């Protein structure tokens, strides 16, 4: 082979690799178009998209509300990296851009990834979108209020087909059971809830 042919071969390999790196990552869009899932594996993107749609259907059914989403939720599936062992399994980013709210859920994919964690973080993102749906023009840097953990626990426990035994057991083991009539007569106890949680 002459030098020109070798140079041409090396340049074409280099340009092909560069084009692959510059190509946008693979993505899938859920049936409702609210969830945009990025990641290399189409099967995994599809499974996360299905779980996101099922989670949203469950919360909408529980709240008896129609689907009126306004802000898409970006889900970024990233493989665990040996040089970054401190990467959390899930990280939800909520921010204001020049064009409105941005919700991005980064999920680190490992062989031990817990499906219930993925469902919980998807629910957290869905509830955040619902809470701030009517406030798209928040000032950049504004602190936001996440849904409380007890709300996530309750919604997940009420998912159809889920075993509610642990939830009932936790309530029975608590010494703080208040009769419903007494609870309803004391509305000041609800004042401890933040205003976005009261909206739900």
Give the termini separation: 71 Å
CATH fold naming: Glutaredoxin
Judging from the principal axes of the Cα atoms, what is the shape? globular
Stretches where pLDDT is under 50 for at least 5 consecutive residues are none
Count of DSSP E strands?
Answer: 5
Helix count, DSSP H or I runs of 4 or more residues: 7
* Backbone structural class: alpha/beta
Describe this entry's structure for a reader.
- The chain is α/β, with parallel strands linked by helices.
- It has one domain (14-163): Glutaredoxin (3-Layer(aba) Sandwich), CATH 3.40.30.
- It is 44% helix and 16% strand.
- The protein contains 7 helices and 5 strands.
- The chain has helices spanning 3-22, 42-63, 115-131, 149-157, 165-173, 180-185, 195-199, and strands spanning 27-29, 35-38, 73-79, 90-97, 100-109.
- A 5-stranded mixed sheet has the order 1-2-3-5-4, covered by helices on one side.
- Helix 2 crosses helix 3 (115-131).
- It is globular, with a radius of gyration of 22 Å.
- The N and C termini lie far apart (71 Å).
- The model has no long low-confidence stretch (mean pLDDT 80).
Summarize the structure.
The protein is an alpha/beta fold.
Structural topology:
Blueprint: H1 3-22, E1 27-29, E2 35-38, H2 42-63, E3 73-79, E4 90-97, E5 100-109, H3 115-131, H4 149-157, H5 165-173, H6 180-185, H7 195-199
Parallel strand pairs: 2-3, 3-5
Antiparallel strand pairs: 1-2, 4-5
């Amino acid at each position: 082979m002459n030098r020109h042919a070798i140079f041409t071969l090396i340049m074409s390999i280099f340009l092909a690799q560069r084009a692959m790196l510059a190509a946008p990552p693979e993505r899938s869009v859920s049936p409702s178009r609210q969830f945009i899932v990025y990641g290399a594996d189409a099967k995994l993107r599809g499974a996360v998209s299905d779980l996101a749609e099922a989670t949203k259907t469950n919360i909408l059914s529980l709240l008896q509300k129609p689907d009126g989403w306004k802000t898409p939720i970006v889900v970024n599936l990233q493989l665990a990296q040996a040089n970054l062992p401190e990467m959390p399994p899930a990280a939800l980013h909520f921010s204001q851009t020049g064009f409105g709210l941005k919700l991005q859920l980064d999920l680190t994919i490992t062989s031990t990834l817990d499906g219930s964690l993925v469902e919980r973080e998807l629910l957290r993102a869905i509830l955040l979108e619902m809470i701030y749906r009517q406030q798209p023009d928040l000032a950049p840097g504004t602190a936001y209020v996440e849904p409380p953990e007890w709300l996530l626990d309750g919604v997940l426990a009420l998912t159809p087909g889920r075993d509610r035994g642990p939830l009932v057991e936790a309530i029975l083991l608590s010494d703080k059971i208040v009769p419903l009539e007494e609870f309803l007569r004391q509305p000041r106890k609800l004042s401890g809830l933040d205003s976005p949680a009261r909206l739900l």
